[in-house]
Design a protein that fits this description.
globular
């Protein structure tokens, strides 16, 4: 049991909402984990949760998403134009940051970085049984090969069956359809869902991701975000 859950009158329950809290892990660095997690939090803030949608940066890296999202306000919890709260938590346990958000009535999307094996034990604990895990995979042969151990360990732990897999294409010239199809065929029936995200030029530019920039997203990007958000709703 996490320290945050001790000495505060017992376990803390998730807020009463249909949206589940989410922990996003990359199977390797540079596959789009931070982008996917932040955009999911933004989408839920704009469509359903408002200010109760938080993006928690627990990746442990020096990131610039708070600047790219043009977040302003209190440094302890910046806000984007969509209302998403941005919480830095580089050294906190995943369980602790999720419970911390719940105490404020927030529904977090946690960026756990490229640490799928490190956070695996926490995601298997009863405290996070209502949390949806998301694995982000890059559709390149080397990245798919490196992800084998992650899928194997998550399956062995019984976590894969409630996991959403996002296949994120970050190279415009990469013909990823065949590899995406192979991965989808390999994990279908073993995971809760598979979502493909095509290359998005706005993301590829590496600049602003604020509300104005998001309006320039391709329709396929919005479709993928909508599918991901729908996959994190209690049914």
């Amino acid at each position: 049991m996490s320290e945050d859950m001790q000495g505060h009158g017992g376990p803390v329950s998730p807020p009463s909402t249909n949206e589940r809290s989410v922990v996003v892990c990359g199977t390797a660095g540079g596959v789009g984990t931070s982008i996917i997690s932040a955009l999911l939090a933004e989408y839920r803030a704009a469509t359903s949760l408002g200010g109760a949608s938080w993006w928690v940066d627990a990746a442990g890296n020096d990131g610039d998403l708070h600047q790219r999202l043009r977040a302003t306000g209190d440094e302890a919890l910046l806000r984007t134009a969509a209302g998403t709260g941005l919480l830095p938590a580089p050294e906190a346990a995943i369980t602790d940051v999720v419970v911390h958000a719940w105490r404020f009535g927030a529904v977090p999307v946690v960026d756990a970085g490229a640490r799928p094996l490190t956070v695996l034990p926490e995601l298997c604990e009863p405290e996070l049984s209502d949390v949806t895990p998301v694995l982000v995979v890059g559709p390149r042969p080397d990245l798919l090969n490196r992800s084998r151990e992650v899928f194997s360990e998550w399956e062995h732990a019984g976590l894969l069956q409630r996991t959403i897999v996002v296949i994120c294409c970050q190279v415009p010239t990469l013909n990823h359809q065949a590899l995406t199809g192979m991965l989808t065929d390999a994990v279908t029936g073993q995971v809760a869902g598979v979502i493909g995200m095509e290359y998005e030029p706005v993301l590829g530019a590496g600049t602003s991701l604020d509300k104005v920039a998001q309006q320039q997203f391709l329709p396929t990007t919005w479709e993928s975000l909508q599918r991901l958000a729908a996959s994190t709703v209690v049914r």
